[in-house]
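Run log // design_07
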């Protein structure tokens, strides 16, 4: 698959929007630490947004990206 400029723009735009949405929903700024569940919620939001871009470009197994996003954000929050 050739990565195009449009792919990069969509990826960056949706990642920023998803990250801001997760900040708004989880209210990270009010506490110093996240719970594991909040990390999982944030990872789900961001992973889903990125999954949309991957699926639109026909990348097989794109759901793995969302799965590992959820796991990694949950692990980061637990540390």
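design_07 sequence
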């Amino acid at each position: 698959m050739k990565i195009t400029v449009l792919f990069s723009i969509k990826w960056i735009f949706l990642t920023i929007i998803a990250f801001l949405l997760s900040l708004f929903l989880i209210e990270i700024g009010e506490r110093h630490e996240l719970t594991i569940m909040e990390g999982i919620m944030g990872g789900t939001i961001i992973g889903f947004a990125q999954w949309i871009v991957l699926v639109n470009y026909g990348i097989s197994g794109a759901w793995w990206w969302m799965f590992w996003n959820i796991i990694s954000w949950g692990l980061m929050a637990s540390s």
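The helical segments are 5-26, 36-56, 63-78.
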